[in-house]
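ok so I'm stuck.
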Amino acid sequence: MPNINKLSVRGGSGMVTIPKDELEMCGLLAEDGTPDTDVQLLVKMERPGEWRISVLDESCVDDSWYTGDTPETGVQVGAGGGKQ
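replied:
not stuck anymore, here's the structure
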Protein backbone atom coordinates (compact mmCIF):
# COMPACT_ATOMS: atom_id res chain seq x y z
CA MET A 1 0.00 0.00 0.00
CA PRO A 2 1.42 3.43 -0.83
CA ASN A 3 2.51 5.80 1.90
CA ILE A 4 1.87 9.44 1.02
CA ASN A 5 3.47 12.07 3.24
CA LYS A 6 4.14 15.76 3.20
CA LEU A 7 7.81 16.65 3.10
CA SER A 8 8.93 17.81 6.54
CA VAL A 9 12.01 19.74 7.60
CA ARG A 10 14.56 19.02 10.32
CA GLY A 11 17.89 20.77 10.62
CA GLY A 12 17.49 22.31 7.17
CA SER A 13 17.02 18.92 5.45
CA GLY A 14 13.88 17.48 3.90
CA MET A 15 12.59 14.35 5.62
CA VAL A 16 10.11 11.57 4.89
CA THR A 17 9.09 8.63 7.07
CA ILE A 18 9.02 4.89 6.49
CA PRO A 19 5.95 3.20 8.03
CA LYS A 20 6.78 1.38 11.26
CA ASP A 21 4.84 -1.75 10.28
CA GLU A 22 6.92 -2.02 7.10
CA LEU A 23 10.15 -1.61 9.11
CA GLU A 24 8.88 -4.33 11.44
CA MET A 25 8.10 -6.70 8.54
CA CYS A 26 11.68 -6.30 7.31
CA GLY A 27 13.21 -6.82 10.77
CA LEU A 28 14.54 -3.26 10.95
CA LEU A 29 13.28 -2.44 14.46
CA ALA A 30 15.30 -2.81 17.66
CA GLU A 31 14.02 -5.01 20.50
CA ASP A 32 12.28 -1.99 22.09
CA GLY A 33 10.29 -1.34 18.88
CA THR A 34 12.22 1.72 17.74
CA PRO A 35 14.06 1.86 14.40
CA ASP A 36 17.42 0.06 14.56
CA THR A 37 19.84 3.00 14.29
CA ASP A 38 22.73 0.66 13.41
CA VAL A 39 21.11 0.02 10.01
CA GLN A 40 22.48 2.33 7.31
CA LEU A 41 20.30 3.47 4.42
CA LEU A 42 21.32 4.76 1.02
CA VAL A 43 19.03 7.44 -0.43
CA LYS A 44 19.71 7.98 -4.12
CA MET A 45 17.98 10.36 -6.49
CA GLU A 46 17.02 8.31 -9.56
CA ARG A 47 15.75 11.35 -11.49
CA PRO A 48 14.20 14.69 -10.53
CA GLY A 49 11.36 14.01 -8.10
CA GLU A 50 12.12 10.28 -7.65
CA TRP A 51 14.36 8.70 -5.01
CA ARG A 52 15.27 5.12 -4.09
CA ILE A 53 15.95 4.05 -0.48
CA SER A 54 18.03 0.90 0.07
CA VAL A 55 19.50 -0.81 3.11
CA LEU A 56 23.28 -0.92 2.62
CA ASP A 57 23.75 -4.30 4.31
CA GLU A 58 21.03 -6.51 2.84
CA SER A 59 21.72 -9.19 5.47
CA CYS A 60 19.94 -6.87 7.97
CA VAL A 61 16.65 -7.33 6.09
CA ASP A 62 14.32 -10.23 6.90
CA ASP A 63 12.84 -11.09 3.53
CA SER A 64 11.67 -14.61 4.44
CA TRP A 65 8.01 -13.51 4.12
CA TYR A 66 8.41 -11.80 0.73
CA THR A 67 6.63 -13.42 -2.23
CA GLY A 68 7.31 -10.79 -4.89
CA ASP A 69 4.00 -9.01 -4.35
CA THR A 70 3.64 -5.65 -2.65
CA PRO A 71 2.36 -6.39 0.87
CA GLU A 72 -0.80 -4.86 2.28
CA THR A 73 0.42 -3.13 5.42
CA GLY A 74 -2.67 -1.25 6.53
CA VAL A 75 -0.86 2.08 6.27
CA GLN A 76 -3.32 4.91 5.79
CA VAL A 77 -2.84 7.11 2.75
CA GLY A 78 -3.03 10.76 3.74
CA ALA A 79 -1.05 13.82 4.65
CA GLY A 80 0.54 12.18 7.69
CA GLY A 81 0.61 8.53 6.63
CA GLY A 82 1.05 5.80 9.23
CA LYS A 83 -1.37 4.18 11.65
CA GLN A 84 -3.04 6.22 14.35
